[in-house]
Amino acid sequence: MTDRSSHDTQLRSRAWFDNPDNPDMTALYLERYLNYGLSQDELQSGKPIIGIAQTGSDLSPCNRHHLELAKRVREGIREAGGIAIEFPVHPIQETGKRPTASLDRNLAYLGLVELLYGYPLDGVVLTIGCDKTTPACLMAAATVNIPAIALSVGPMLNGWFRGERTGSGTIVWKAREMMAAGEIDYPGFVKLVASSAPSTGYCNTMGTASTMNSLAEALGMQLPGSAAIPAPYRDRQEISYLTGKRIVDMVHEDLKPTDILTKDAFVNAIRVNSAIGGSTNAPIHLNALARHVGVELSIDDWQTYGEEIPLLVNLQPAGEYLGEDYYHAGGVPAVVNQLMEQGLIAEDALTVNGKTIGENCRGAVIEDTNVIRSYDNPLKPHAGFRVLKGNLFSSAIMKLSVISPTFRKTYLENPEDPMAFEGKAIVFDGPEDYHHRIDDPELAIDEHSVLFMRGAGPIGYPGAAEVVNMRAPNYLIKRGVTELPCIGDGRQSGTSGSPSILNASPEAAAGGGLALLQTGDKVRIDLGRGTADILISEDELETRRKALDAAGGYQYPAHQTPWQEIQRGIVSQLETGMVLEPAVTYQRLAQG
Ligand code: FES
Ligand code: MG
Questions:
Q1: Of the bound ligands, which one is closest to the alpha carbon of residue 130?
Q2: What are the UniProt keywords, alphabetically (predicted)?
Q3: Residue 466 beta carbon below 6 angstroms from any ligand 1 atom
């Protein structure tokens, strides 16, 4: 055990509440926090001040249960000898924020950096959940580098409709197809979609929320076994209490994000991401986190470390089950143990409980092999991402684990050239253009068409929209063609099972090759070699490039808000995490 007294004299909150060099300011700080109801004795007793960064609110229903859980977190903090101070984080709700919630990840990040840096906080509990809340909180804690522990709000209970599991998000894609095919009417559509969200909590599928919460645990930033506990379960209350207790000790031990978020931790998370069938948004958020904590992580690392890892977790959209099943089957520790037995986990990576991931997860059993498979009996081999490059973009990723048998049969079983296909490009400029024209017979889309979405990246559609997975036109769906290859410079919802080529960087709006593409161009995608190209001559490409430059570059919609304009001016591409570039230079603020 570390010598507590020696650390306590260095608590950063002393600079506010007990600073002999500045008695005037100390009085001012004390006066206002006394006003809130604390006593001078408490504030000067050497107890760590622990922030609870509250992401729940009426505006963010996925995380709203944190308002309840925070009560148990406070009890844990108090019992361990700390003082809790709860404060709001800029709310983010994935499906309700227009034009896109990811515009707000960096805004919540910036706001939280200011709070953690500028107020008398010795440690913080990060209340994570809905997609962007997790990376926003982790990124801010990494930048400031005070002791931090994440607490997941937990997934919703399983959704059910007529005896079958309906998963949040994922059911929307299916219900849309059913409505387009005339199988259900609009009230039936709404009823089916609503069945997937039966309780408080985040999406019960392996979408971006479940992915990022699992990865926060795999990174070592949450207590072991905590990520998968469903929101309404009693165990969720208990882990909230334990999280509150633990952060106080972390402050005494001076255990900081930089001690936990090492390259080993990121490689562990990449491997876990493949095994759980994690979201295509994970590389964006983890690469962003790595940049803020100062760890070298590239998009190619995702293929290098993750591609060969098999799919072990049978959750929608890649599989059948949902969040409750994942928890009962053993959650993250059971997955980590499977990888660990193959030597695929850096076991010495430290976690928030002060132990290594190896100590935490060794021997964690799979309780239900239908939901979590063993490494030697996986659902699919090679569940990670393939990184593609070519004259269309310098990088884009494809999640191989969601390629359907039909897609494989239609596009990837050419005996002369397996894993490669050519097609006619159909180009849409942003989601509005796509919605407007997808069913237009003039486009003459057929099964040899490849749908392109551009103008949907961090600059083009500020924050990058989840719009790359596009449905086939209704006239094709009625003929039984439901899936067309989709490629774009935007993102895709983690709850979508579509085998799209995503996150293309640089985007059209940043001068990427997609800006030069025209409807009718022939394109060639080779998943085996990892290439994606427009099949036109260098000269023709050059001519188009000059014409584009002369026209002032790729045109995108005007800014609607001040934040859109500010972010567009300083944001990096999806490949490098869509971070605010100037923010990356600010690291370890609390030590600085
Ligand atoms: Fe918030 Fe899925 S929309 S977790
Ligand atoms: Mg999402």
A1: 1
A2: Iron, Iron-sulfur, Lyase, Metal-binding
A3: no
Q: Is the peptide bond before 155 cis (omega within 30 degrees of 0)?
A: no
Q: Whose CA is nearest to atom 1 of ligand 1?
A: 130
Centre of ligand 1 to C-alpha 65, Å, is: 13
For ligand 1, is residue 264 a contact (CB within 6 Å)? Answer: no
In this structure, what token pair is assigned to residue 295? 């760890």
Supply the pLDDT for residue 4: 39
Output the CA angle 358-364-365, nearest 5 degrees: 155
Q: Dihedral angle at the C-alpha atoms of 112, 266, 220, 311, nearest 10 degrees?
A: 120
Query: Sign of the C-alpha dihedral, residues 441, 443, 444, 446?
Result: negative
* 407 CA → ligand 2 middle, Å: 23
- Could you report the predicted ipTM of this complex, rounded to two decimals? 0.90
β-pairing, 395-399 vs 385-388, is antiparallel
pLDDT band at 7 (very low <50, low <70, confident <90, very high): very low
Contact of 491 with 468, CB cutoff 8 Å: yes
Task: Write out the two tokens for 110.
Answer: 């910036």
Please classify residue 288 by burial: count the beta carbons closer than 10 Å to its beta carbon, then call 0-12 exposed, 13-18 middle and 19+ buried: buried
Q: To which residue do tokens 């039909």 refer?
A: 406
Q: Is 128 in the pocket of ligand 1 (CB under 6 A)?
A: no
**In ligand 1, which atom is closest to the CA atom of 495?**
2
Q: Is the pTM of this model over 0.90?
A: yes
Lookup: tokens for 585: 């230079």
